[in-house]
Amino acid sequence: MESRLRPVCVGSLINLNMSQKLKNRMRGSRIAPNGNVEVYFNKDWPGPVHQKTEEEKASILNVLLIQTNILRHQDRQLLEEVVKQFYRKTVAMDVKVVEQGKNVDNFYIVNRGLFHETEGAGHDGLEVVKFYNDEGSFMEKALLYTVTAPTTIVSRNTDGSLWVLNRETYKMAVAYYRHMRHRTTVRLMNQVPVLRLVELERKNRISEALESRYYDAKSVIYSEKDVLDGLYIVITGSVMLYHVSDAGERHPIEGADELIHGHYFGQTAFTWKMGKRRSESAMALEPTTLAFLSVAVFHSQVGDFVTALRRGRLTRVERLRSMIEKPRLLPAGEIVD
Asked: Domain 194-325, what architecture?
C-alpha cells in the first residue's frame, strides 16, 4: 500500500561561501570555556596548516572527541579546524617533554613511542606513575591558561613523536572559527522568513544560542511523529526529508530530497502549539553539521517581539505567519511592510 505524501514547508537559502576572506582588520573575540580571554586577529589568519594524512587527522580528532575533558564538548567543525593546527615534534631518548614545577603552554598527543610520567622521589629519584605507549594525551588545560606541570613526562624511545598544539594558536583558531560561524549564521538567519524581521541585536543573541549538531551518514535526525522541537539549518553535508510507507519504505519529498548548505527545515515548529508532531522524517545523507534553533530559545529571544507586532500591527503578524507557512522564499529583496 502506497503512503500518501504530505507537503512540508521547506525553504531554500542563498548558498553562502563559508571560506570568505576576512576584512583587513577584524573585531576581537572573547573566548575560553573557563574565563574571558580577549583575542585579536587579522586577515592573515588562519595560520599555517601543518600537513597530515587523512589517517593522522582522524587519529587526532578521535583523541579530541574521546580522551579529552574540555575539547570534546566543542563543535565538531571547530575541532576539525583545531586538528589542522597541531604540528609534529620528534623526541629523542630521555628528553623531558614537561618538567614538574615548570610552566607549560602546550597540549600534547602521543603519536608514537613510550613516555613515562614521573613525580616525587622514588628509589632512583623519580617514581613512575603512568605510561604512555603509542597513545594518550596530556596537559590539555594548558590550552586555557599557563599550567604548572604537576609531574614530569620523559621519552623512553629514540624515535618518539608527539602532536603539539600551542595555547595561543588554539585561541586564535577558536576566535576565528566563532567569528566566521557568527557571520555565517546571521546571514543564514536573514534568509529564514520567521527570523528575517528580527532586528540585528536579537539575531546576534540567537546566533550565540544556536546549537551545532553533527550527524554521521545515514543517521536519522528526527522521525515522523516526533515532537516539533525547532528549526534546522544545513551548514555542511546534506539532508533528505522523506515519508515512510506502511511497508517501511522511504519516499523522498519532492524538492527536499537533498538539502545542502544554506537550506533550512522544521520551521513550522514556531507556528504550532507545543507538543505538535513532525509530519516528515529527516536523515543525513553524508557526514553533516546542522545549526539548531530550539523552540524554547526562539520564544525567549523573539516571543516578545512577535507579541509587540501583534499588538501594534496585526497585518504584519499575519504576513509573518503566511511567510512561515509558504513552502518558498519571498523574492530576493522583497520588503515586508
From this structure: Sandwich (2.60)
For 86-137, the pLDDT digits (tens) are 999 999 998 999 999 999 999 999 999 999 998 875 445 568 889 999 999 9
Cell of 171: 585561541
Give alpha helix (H) positions in 288-337. 295-312, 314-325
Query: What amino acid occupies position 304?
Result: D
The CATH class that applies to domain 8-172 reads: mainly beta
Positive/negative CA dihedral, 47, 144, 56, 236: negative
Task: Please say if the pLDDT value at position 29 is more than 80.
Answer: no
Does an H or E element contain 57, and which? helix 54-66
d(CA 260, CA 148) in angstroms, rounded, equals 46
d(Cα 211, Cα 229) in Å, to the nearest integer? 13
* Residue 110 CA from chain centroid, whole number: 25
Topology alike, domains 8-172 and 194-325: yes
Closest by CA to 327, choosing from 257, 247, 260, 255, is 255
Contact criterion met (CB below 8 Å) for 187 and 261: no
For residues 70 and 87, give the distance between their C-alpha atoms in angstroms, rounded to a whole number.
20
Q: What is the DSSP string of 215-267?
A: E-TT-EEE-TTSB--EEEEEEES-EEEEEE-TTS-EEEPTT-SSB-TT-EE-G
CA distance linking residue 308 with residue 317, whole number of Å: 10
Grid cell, residue 214, equals 553533527
pLDDT tens digit sequence for 209-264? 888 899 999 999 999 888 888 889 998 899 999 998 888 889 999 888 899 988 98
The domain limits of the chain are 8-172, 194-325
Q: How far apart are CA 146 and CA 106, in angstroms?
A: 9
Answer for the pair 71, 79: CB distance below 8 angstroms, yes or no.
Answer: yes
Q: Do 142 and 98 contact (CB within 8 A), yes or no?
A: no
Beta strand 211-215 pairing with 288-294: antiparallel
Cα–Cα distances (Å) from 144 to 30, 38, 103, 117, 140, in that order, read: 12, 12, 13, 22, 8
Instruction: Give me the residue label for grid cell 576572506.
Output: 21
Give the predicted TM-score (pTM) of the model: 0.65
